[in-house]
Write a structure and sequence with these properties.
signal, DUF4142 domain-containing protein
Length: 147
């Protein structure tokens, strides 16, 4: 019975040593294999976000569906590139992209119905989410360029 406990203790010690020796951040992909730089994707998101804000402020609801498609494409590019990010930032990005896509879906709906008040409210909800995505892309770009 003592030999069994000793063996289990050794297993736990080996497992603990392996966990302590593992790197603190997990990387799912090779940062050198990036297809598009994070800075370019961030610039696309900034550009579309500015055009959405302008369209909402100017009451141009008819432009919103096309701009939402552009923003969805930029968000998809960010999500596709996220494999070069660390695990925590990648998951944070995925949550923010899902939130932004939900806001964009609502904006499409309100633009089609012509409800400018709800469209403005939805745009106000989108802005901080886009800001968070920008921060994550900036960090990923700094990390990718530091290597």
């Amino acid at each position: 019975m003592t030999a069994v406990r000793l063996r289990q203790g050794c297993r736990y010690a080996l497992l603990l040593a392996a966990l302590l020796g593992a790197p603190s951040c997990q990387w799912a992909g090779d940062t050198g294999a990036a297809k598009a730089s994070f800075a370019v994707i961030r610039q696309q998101i900034d550009d579309v976000s500015a055009r959405i804000t302008s369209a909402v402020q100017n009451g141009e609801a008819d432009r919103i569906p096309a701009l939402d498609r552009d923003m969805n494409a930029a968000l998809d590019a960010a999500r596709n590139q996220s494999s070069a990010m660390n695990l925590l930032d990648r998951e944070h990005l995925n949550i923010n992209v899902a939130t932004a896509k939900q806001c964009l879906s609502g904006m499409d709906r309100y633009a089609q119905s012509g409800d400018n008040d709800l469209l403005r409210a939805q745009a106000a909800q989108l802005a901080p989410t886009v800001s968070e995505i920008r921060v994550l892309l900036d960090r990923a770009d700094r990390i990718a360029n530091s290597k």
